[in-house]
Amino acid sequence: MSYSVQSKKSGKTYFLHGRRQKLKGGQEVTLYFFAGEAKEGALDALPAGYEVSENASTGLPLLKKIR
What pTM was computed for the model? Predict the structure, then answer.
C-alpha cells in the first residue's frame, strides 16, 4: 500500500514517490515527490528523518527534513 496524504484544502489524495537521480558530479540522490496517482516508484512509508507539511496557499503536500 502506497503512502498517501489527503490535502486539507482540496481534499485530494496524493501519493509519495521516490526516484534515484544521478547528478553531473556522479553523486546519486533520491528525489521525493507527491503525485495524484500511485505509479512506479510509489513508496510504502515516509523516509526516515522526513515529515509531511502542506503549502498553505496551494494545498499541495511537501516533504521536509526534520530539524
Answer: 0.87
Q: Going residue by residue through the chain, which has 67 residues, state the pLDDT in tens, using 9 for 90 and above.
A: 899 999 999 899 999 999 999 999 999 999 999 999 999 999 999 999 999 999 989 999 999 999 8
Domain ranges in the chain are 4-65
Between CA 13 and CA 61 the distance in angstroms is 10
**Cell numbers placing 46:** 515516509
Integer CA distances (angstroms), 33 to 3, 25, 47, 49, 61, in order:
12, 22, 12, 15, 9
